[in-house]
């Protein structure tokens, strides 16, 4: 395997983290540990933001150099003691020197990085089936070829990419920094994003625990487990069903199948029919991924790469939550500078999670004890203090202030992201979800059940709910709502929202973990009411897909902080139960949750590593092995300089082809689906049907019709298409012959065969004209 590259990337991450440490420490100066676990994501935000904006002038070494220069300048500005400098001494400012916990977070990063390197080394290929690897690798390759941003779309030649590509941009910058080819950078970057996520979860949960004077290490390790290793309850449910008596097996399996995407036979299959894939497809019409599945599957996708920066947003919100009211300058800096800058880059990395950064900001202000109004206006704050309002009115004013603070920060963040939003993210609209499409309670429990058990036990314990009647009445009301409106989420997370909000706004012994609980509950509830109407999958598939990953990450950190605290805390919840017995019951619940969420990892990883071949991190080595006839043609296109336009058969998905067949070959998610463009970054006129979601059906189908005409139409039509799109090369391979039959260009001059074997012919277009 490429061990030298692994070491090179680890050194690069270490240098970036060292430079990012002073900036993270200043951002998180009010947190225990002062931003432990967030040095690397902070550095990546600086390098990525500067690289992105400079890249619109020139992308490549200059953009990378500008990003690194900005990071070094910020590190010096925030890390060096100015008083010592005046005395010509070099000293770190107080609080910037890494504590011992930084070394432990670095070990967590190293272990997580090595874990994913091992996972990817036995299955490194960017196969088109089972995910979006052709899309992700194509974005990386087109950025590798780009000299200016936004890069040209490899599936829609002569137009910029209309997709969030910020994570691939960071990967390309790291690729340039380490001198790594994209075929290796793909998998090394996957390992880096995972390790950054897990170490950020470790650092954030540890800080939350230390805020409450709890033992921080169990919380940090628990968060790393829940975020990086744990799974939903699908796998353990199947194991439980398999262990039941025969009659009960069938009844329970039928009940689960009726409320999920599984058949009764699939539920009854047990371990023998285990597949790592099925745990991510639970709720009908949706995708329900969690980090271990996502990184095991191996897409370099936006919803994965955005997670470390979502947790950085949570850390900034936590720092604001902890900042004293008197430190107004710092509060305003966090709200109006740090959050908008992070959100601006996050929009380009993963647009779906950008609103969540502002949601976390809102909750940190709304659920915090400090008055939000001074952040907006000292005069309004003074006027409010002079009034003797009813507590309910005062609470309403606090909420309105939080909304105002978030709105102003949101405007600033949107302004920073406006060029991208106007281009790549336009054309979507929010729609109301029909009652019939909402998730059932069993579906919600299969996906979120482990977290819900932890959070309800924790909040009820901390709230010391000894009057059961009001709670029963509240749950009954929510149950009535759920039954009449088919809104099971009201029962699943409705009480969490109420209990969490009440705990934060009263004197109960809770901390920022409860803010994260409320944040995740809010996201789960929102996707049961509305969804983003778009072409990427049926109905709300993409909305749930992209949102549930955020929920998992936020709730994973919250569970890591809450579960050890629940086990250790005596509290006043169970005065009738002897302390030792109470502790044993709490420990038993914690063990049950961990045992319920770990079987997937054991089964999936053992299956993944079974019969592993010689390890490599080369994402494209499979091409020579599986497609030896087309590999030389792919290599020929990959060696072309710049981004010449290629003509190849469109991967039209469900749309019919020129002969009316349905679907028309090559379709999507197969080797024949635009392999040359996807594996080289050389743009084709019309690639995958995904472009319908990016640009609309008519724009894409117009190109499809033009490409079909170029291969099958008259010489005049062929020449017109070649000239319209400035085509420089024409690809004729298995996909083109499957779609069009025998392909010839009789009657067209100016096409020269520059590559030819039994599988593929590549023509260079010099001066196309009709042979008369």
From TrEMBL:
A Pfam cross-reference name: DUF2298
Record has Membrane as a keyword: yes
Keywords annotated in UniProt: Membrane, Transmembrane, Transmembrane helix
Transmembrane segments: 6-24, 36-55, 61-80, 101-122, 184-208, 220-241, 300-321, 333-349, 355-376, 396-421, 441-459, 471-498, 510-531, 552-571, 583-605
Protein name: YYY domain-containing protein
Record organism: Haloplanus aerogenes
């Amino acid at each position: 395997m490429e061990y030298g590259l692994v070491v090179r990337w680890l050194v690069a991450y270490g240098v970036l983290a060292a430079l990012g440490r002073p900036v993270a420490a200043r951002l998180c100066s009010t947190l225990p540990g002062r931003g432990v676990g967030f040095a690397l994501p902070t550095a990546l935000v600086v390098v990525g933001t500067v690289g992105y904006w400079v890249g619109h002038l020139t992308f490549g070494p200059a953009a990378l150099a500008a990003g690194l220069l900005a990071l070094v300048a910020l590190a010096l500005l925030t890390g060096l003691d100015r008083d010592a400098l005046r005395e010509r001494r070099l000293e770190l400012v107080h609080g910037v020197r890494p504590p011992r916990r930084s070394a432990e977070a670095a070990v967590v990063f190293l272990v997580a990085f090595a874990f994913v390197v091992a996972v990817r080394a036995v299955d490194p290929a960017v196969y088109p089936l089972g995910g979006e690897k052709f899309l992700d690798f194509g974005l990386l390759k087109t950025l590798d070829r780009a000299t200016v941003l936004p890069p040209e779309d490899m599936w829609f030649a002569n137009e910029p990419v209309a997709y969030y590509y910020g994570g691939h941009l960071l990967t390309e910058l790291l690729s340039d920094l380490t001198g790594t080819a994209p075929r290796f950078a793909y998998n090394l970057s996957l390992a880096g994003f995972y390790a950054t996520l897990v170490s950020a979860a470790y650092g954030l949960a540890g800080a939350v625990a230390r805020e409450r004077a709890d033992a921080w290490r169990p919380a940090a390790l628990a968060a790393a487990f829940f975020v990086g290793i744990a799974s939903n309850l699908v796998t353990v449910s199947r194991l439980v069903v398999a262990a039941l008596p025969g009659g009960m097996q069938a009844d329970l399996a039928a009940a689960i199948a009726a409320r999920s995407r599984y058949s009764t036979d699939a539920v009854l299959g047990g371990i023998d029919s285990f597949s790592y894939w099925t745990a991510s497809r639970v709720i009908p019409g949706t995708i329900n991924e969690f980090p271990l599945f996502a990184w095991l599957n191996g897409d370099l996708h936006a919803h994965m790469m955005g997670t470390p920066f979502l947790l950085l947003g949570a850390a900034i919100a936590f720092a604001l939550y902890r900042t004293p009211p008197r430190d107004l300058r710092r509060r305003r800096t966090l709200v109006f500078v740090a959050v908008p800058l992070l959100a601006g880059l996050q929009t380009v990395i993963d647009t779906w999670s950008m609103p969540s950064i502002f949601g976390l900001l809102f909750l940190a202000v709304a659920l915090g004890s400090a008055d939000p109004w001074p952040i907006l206006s000292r005069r309004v704050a003074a006027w409010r203090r002079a009034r003797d309002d009813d507590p309910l009115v005062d609470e309403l004013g606090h909420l309105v202030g939080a909304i105002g603070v978030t709105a102003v920060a949101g405007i600033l963040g949107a302004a920073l992201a406006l060029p991208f939003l106007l281009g790549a993210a336009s054309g979507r609209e929010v729609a109301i979800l029909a009652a019939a499409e909402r998730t059932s309670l069993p579906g919600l429990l299969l996906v979120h059940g482990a977290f819900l058990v932890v959070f309800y036990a924790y909040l009820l314990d901390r709230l010391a709910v000894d009057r059961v009647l009001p709670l029963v009445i509240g749950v009954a009301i929510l149950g009535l709502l759920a039954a009449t409106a088919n809104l099971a989420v009201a029962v699943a997370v409705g009480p969490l929202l109420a209990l969490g909000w009440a705990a934060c706004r009263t004197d109960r012994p809770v901390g920022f973990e409860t803010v994260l609980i409320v944040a995740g509950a809010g996201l789960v509830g929102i996707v049961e009411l509305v969804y983003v109407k778009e072409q990427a999958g049926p109905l709300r598939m993409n909305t749930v897909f992209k949102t549930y990953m955020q929920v998992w990450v936020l709730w994973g950190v919250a569970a890591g902080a809450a579960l050890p605290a629940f086990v250790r805390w005596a509290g006043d919840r169970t005065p009738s139960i002897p302390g030792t017995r109470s502790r044993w019951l709490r420990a038993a619940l914690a063990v049950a949750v961990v045992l319920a969420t770990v079987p997937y990892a054991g089964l999936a990883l053992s299956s993944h590593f079974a019969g592993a071949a010689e390890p490599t991190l080369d994402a494209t080595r499979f091409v020579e092995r599986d497609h030896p006839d087309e590999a030389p043609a792919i290599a020929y296109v990959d060696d072309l300089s710049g981004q010449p336009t290629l003509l190849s058969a469109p991967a039209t998905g469900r749309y019919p082809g020129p002969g009316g067949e349905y679907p028309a070959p090559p379709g999507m998610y197969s080797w024949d689906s635009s392999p040359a463009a996807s594996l080289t970054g050389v743009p084709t006129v019309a690639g995958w049907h995904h472009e319908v979601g990016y640009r609309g059906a008519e724009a894409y189908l117009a190109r499809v019709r033009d490409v079909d005409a170029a291969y099958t139409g008259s010489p005049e039509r062929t020449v017109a298409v070649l000239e319209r799109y400035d085509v420089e090369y024409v690809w004729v391979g298995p996909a083109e012959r499957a779609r069009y039959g025998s392909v010839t260009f009789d009657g067209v001059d100016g096409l020269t065969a520059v590559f030819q074997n039994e599988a593929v012919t590549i023509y260079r277009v010099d001066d196309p004209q009709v042979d008369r």
